[in-house]
Model the fold of this input.
Amino acid sequence: MSEVKKIKKGLDIKLIGKAEKVLEKADRSETFAIKPTDFPGLTPKLKVKVDTEVKAGSALFFDKYRPEINFTSPVSGKVVAVNRGERRKILEVVIQADAAIQYQEFKKADPNSLSREEVKEEMLKSGLWAYVRQRPYDVIAKPQDTPKAIFVSAFDTAPLAADIDFLLEGEAEAFQAGLDALAKLTDGKVHLNINPNINQSKTFSDAKNVVVNQFTGIHPAGNVGVQIHELSPINKGDVVWVIRPQEILFIGRLFQNGTYDVSRKVALTGSEVKNPAYYSTILGGSVRNILKAQLKDDDKIRVISGNVLTGTQIPEDGFLGFYDSQITVIPEGDEYEFLGWALPGLKKFSMSKTFFSWLTPNKEYRLDANLHGEHRAFVMTGEYDKVLPMDVLPLQLIKSIMVEDIDQMEQLGIYEVAPEDLALCEFVCTSKINVQDLVRQGIDLMVKEMS
Amino acid sequence: MKALRKFLDKKKPLFQKGGKFAKLQSSFEAFETFLYVPNITSHSGTHIKDAIDLKRTMSVVVLALIPALLFGIYNTGYQHFLSLGQTAEFMDICIYGLIEILPIIVVSYVVGLGIEFAFAQMRGHQVNEGFLVSGMLIPLIMPVGAPLWMVAVSTAFAVVIGKEVFGGTGMNIWNPALVARAFFFFAYPSKMSGDIVWIADKADSFSGATPLAHAASLADFEGGSGAATSIIEQHLSNSWDMFVGLIPGSIGETSTIAILIGAVILIASGIGSWKIMASVFVGGYTMGAIFNLVGANAYMELIPAWQHLIMGGFAFGAVFMATDPVSAAQTARGKIIYGFLIGFLAVLIRVMNAGFPEAMMLAILLMNTFAPLIDHYVIQGNVKRRLKRVKVNA
Done:
């Protein structure tokens, strides 16, 4: 196996509420939803109406500009609502699930025996293509591209992240089948990046048809963007694809069983959860039944699909995001704090040592969604550099995005970053600047200008 | 504190859009957010945020300035009684210093914050915290004999021309406190040099020039090396006093020890850039050593390089002025180059131009001007590295 690459820059945010590795039972959710807003840059066109009956794997909508990419229903049942937002933007396509799932049938085959085109076709038809994302731009991959490599990060270093070993437990075969399918899609290699301290299961170390690379270190070491930067940085014109291990399982199941089976485990985490643990659910499921009886009831809370750095806020009866394996519940924190900026701050977490909490480095914190300050112009420098382990100048990149200087953005590395890679920059920002939004804006601008 | 919160919540609508005092919204918010960290929560991006904000950052810097301030108060009294040839109790010394210095601080904050509030109000912006630090820096780099109205005019000039015309906190290109001092220096030169301004109400017979001024006088000294040595022995030999700060000079600049305590606070808290501080000292020492080697006149020959680092405003500038994140270089490598050049130029100007014995201010302002250029080349370096990678891969 290759040498271990250590990521030194970054920040581990220790929070209360890590999920225990037990699989708890919750009532199956009655409704499921696919949210077009989970896919940046997508213009969805509906294929179904309210009351249409669907099977698991039937298309709900497709990409207006790339009609071959389908987004399919995770369960069988009836479309009960198409929720829209401003300017009739589609927010959710909601399905009422049948008691027993009926699957649309797809071709069952050993991916090793199929051609690239056949693998692609199956994935596009079944809706699995949406899991394959590309860098640059961090959007769904273009099917007609051939990437120079495919990268898979097998560990997640984000706060309270789910343990991917546990998510994949007992599914090594499906995982291998998924990897075999992926290997068909590139002329280069499939890089499976593991952390020897976190990934103890054989699922990864015994994986075939892939290159296993080892990484250790603090967050964002588990971000695939950081790993790509270490292994084979993206230059102008390069395309690489990324996919998460949990989603490789779905691909494996498709080829093994011929069904679009997107049942998955999720970690229920966060300080406002009574017993943080793992739950079985299906992609797009409502989180209501999982949260039921698990919430501490003393405070206003915020439910997040995903982790606290990159996740999306959802209502207590909202739906799991398309790419998320984690539900986090934290206090809302919309309260005034008397002289909060001046107090010693033993309960506050900060990268700087301006709060005395630095005396207790291993403490776990109960952090809320308060900004702890107000938006300001850029004042401090050097903060972002401490948490971005890439040869990229984050402050300068963000400034070039703010002034929409495309040449400068290109030169400073917009192709290499995804919003999630700069999430920590946003976390530590003294001036409370919305770094991830800006990165996404910059990417959108690049997509518009370059195509 | 609930009652206070209730009171604020009750009055708040008056200051919001459509309220009776809507025009005073910025001022109300400034007071409200001073008392309470607001209840704003994140709506996009990361859900949790680092606890630090600009108020905390600025208050840490003010905290780091306290040792220099306290020492300045003591030294003001000490120099006063020393010049009169009197001995005084510790408390008397401190009280005298406080009476001299407090008005300068009050004037600086009242004028500066007044203008800040007015600008925020006019623009409908929030009041930024930047002046919390500038308001403390300005008094500390003034001579104790500075007339209050001149302090007021300099402060006003610094806030308006040094900062607000560029858009306020975070947008300025020069360090506002140094703009105040530069204005003072060039507008009222007689109040910023010579030997009468550095000691409050001194006896006429007592020489009150700073060690730097004495040192500068060596540059065109024509009395033979024996006489030069006697000047050094008389005024500069006590390096310990210079290090501790018991010498005439600007209020907060004299004590290297007090400044180093501030430096430790800034570096430990992660607010001040150790890269800039260290490289300023290295730069100053390097230039001093070069002068020692060349040794064209008594100044260059007889003042050892390290003494430059404890004389005048060198240490203060290195720790508190050069590190201003807004006007300094912003890239990691840029900071090192920027700091080195400040130290280098400060000693160069100091020694080569007797007209500007206190050259630290000029060196920092000059490098403030060039900081974006330094950053530009550092950024280009990064871009080139990236482009090279393409060729390697291809």
